[in-house]
Structures are given as C-alpha cells and as structure tokens.
Amino acid sequence: MNTRAARLLTALSASFLIGLYSSSTVAAEPGPAASLANAFAFEAHVTIDAPIVVGTGPQGLRRIVPITGGKFEGPRIKGIILNGGADWQYVRGDGVLQIEAKYTLRTSDGVTIMITNRGMRHGPADVIDRLARGEAVDPSQYYFRTVAEFEAPSDSRYAWLNKALFLATAERQATVVNLRFYELK
Known about the structure:
Layout: H1 3-25, E1 38-48, E2 52-57, E3 60-73, E4 78-81, E5 85-91, E6 97-107, E7 112-122, H2 125-132, E8 143-151, E9 166-172, E10 176-184
Antiparallel strand pairs: 1-3, 1-10, 2-3, 3-4, 3-5, 4-6, 5-6, 6-7, 7-8, 8-9, 9-10
C-alpha cells in the first residue's frame, strides 16, 4: 500500500472511531423514569422446625430449616403452606444470614403454587443471639428482607404471581416466620 492510501485509510479509520465514540457518548434527553411502586399482596405465617446444622463450608455455616406448614392470606389469595419445604441458609463471614427458601402454597380453592424466597437477615450480635435462643425480638431491631418469585399454573386465577417480583418484610419467632409480601408494580 502506498503512503497516500495508508494516510487516507488512517484518516477514515480515525473519523469512523471518533464518530462511533461521539454517538455512543452523547447524553440522551432525560425522560420520565418508571417509578417503583408496590401493593400489599398477602401475609404468610410459615411454621418451621429446628435448624439442621450441616457445618462450615466455603460460604460459611450452612443450615437447613425445615418448613412444616402455615397459612397465608391477602386480598386476592388465601390458603395453607404445605409441609415439605425448607430454607437452605448459611451464615456468611460478616455475620449476615443468607437464605433461600423453597416451599409450596395451596390456595383455598385447591391451586398449588411454588415459591422461591431469597433474602438476608442481620443485626447486632446480641439481637441475633436472642433470635437464635427463640426469644421474642422487636423486628425493628434487625434487618430481615426477602425477594420472592412464584410459579403458579398459567391457566389459573393466580397467574398474576408469575408476572411480578415480590418483596417481603420478615419477622422471626421461635417456630414461625411472619412475612408481608408486596408486589412490585
């Protein structure tokens, strides 16, 4: 390639790159952002058994908490929680309890719905120790939040659960976890 062709190719390449860079860095006009809203969906009272301690692994102290039943109710849904689920959890090195609970709901009209509920709980050491002993602790003294996803039959009146994320506030008692689920709009 001759010098003149090389210079032309370099100039075209530089122009192309400058144009590409300029078009990707131009700020877009600000527009209305989607707002984050929520609506109360239901409250659940999940009964649990004593934790099964697996031991300390790479992620921390691993435990399994059997879910033995319970009930739930809200404006559009009501029913029971079936025995057989569990909360697979571990205590991280920083003391945060990381949870992943999987269990099954049965509505009052007989529809079965699966739930996967992930979240975390943490607080001052003395508060967490009191919770571990089964003592009643004001939920404002610790952080316990989850994000839930549901699997309801697509042809059921509960298919709306499949199309949203749900946040929950949670409260730990000795043998029950109380959750208030909110649908993100």
